Amino acid sequence: MKRKILGMTAAIAVIISLLVVTLPAEEKDNECGCCCNKASTEGKPLNFYDLIEKTKGWEEDVILLEKELKEKKEKLLELYKQTKEGIQWKEIEDLQSEIEKLETEYWYKKEILFEISVLRKYTELQEDGTLKIVKESLPEVNDFEVDKALNTMEFVGEEKMEIKLELYKTLFGEDFKENMQNLEGYVVLPYLNTIKLEELYQEMIDLDDTRWNYEKKYIELIVSQKMKKVLSRGIKTIPEYCRVYSNCDPPDAPLTEGGEYEFLNLRKIRVWVGVYSTETPNMAYKIGDLCYTYFTTSMHWYYAKAKQKYVHCRSIQVKWFYLGEVSDDNWKTHNLIWEGNKSSNPHIGEWYTYGRYTTTNPENGDYVVTVNANWLQCCYNNGWHWCNTHCHGCFACDQSRAQNFSLTDTQ
Question: What DSSP state is assigned to residue 105?
Fold first, then answer.
């Protein structure tokens, strides 16, 4: 299957406060979203010595990976800027794929190392390798703080996708969705705004640092919260299953950004609806979430439901989640998402962020994707998986830990 490259992701640094509203009982999912206190058994205690042995040499790996990633990203930016004179896009695609694989390993190891440091911060190491929780050192944490930290990370991800759109338009024009599919071989972009391209690219670099700062906050909060729950059950040592990222296997490399893939056996998973108090979706003004198993192309239906629950709703964002097997990725299961938006302002109306969602039963076939990498959370749900965790559930799991948005209309 032929793959075509779109471009590198971009980002922006943001600082926000989010209000997360918990769903009523009838709208909550029954699945367990990263909640060790709901596991059927307590499991064996975590052995710290085993954990250290498994992560031996990772500190050096992270340092080397960071250096290599910086060099390759600088090279990729130069390749983008050279498109003004013309360049083989295959060279860009290959380099982008190398960067994505390195980032997958880099972030996985970096997150686990930080999680280990948090575990040690609030525990005492015993002679047998178990970690005894020090109750007096644990901070007070509530669900609101944890949800706020997680949704702040989500806000950064949404900003990243918006900047990515700007990057595409800079490279391929306003009709980038169509133009990028026609790019083959040697391409010249004589009117490329290289200054704007470099600014967008730098915003991407800034976002990596910003999201990491928020993610560290989230890890510390949720690990502390889990320790509190363990203590409330009369357990003084950390169980094996009560970690954040360490329980999931290392994620696979994500699908290639802008790649065209054949998805087979597409099936409906869930619909997520973000609710906002602004005329267009803005994560800084998110007031709630809704999740449904009912699929319809009518964004008005979801808007009516959101308005019924949240009187201050003025816009919604809808994500239709599917899963399918990708033939040219060794038949691995990946998520495929369409995203739509609706405003209360009739002059704004409805629009799709990427591909148009015109049927609830999209056909198997080729779809071009834009990738939101390093996004999914490690969840306990009949085992450990990298999953979406909206509405406190675990769904549309993908071992690559990425969300794949379709640039192609439903077929």
Answer: H
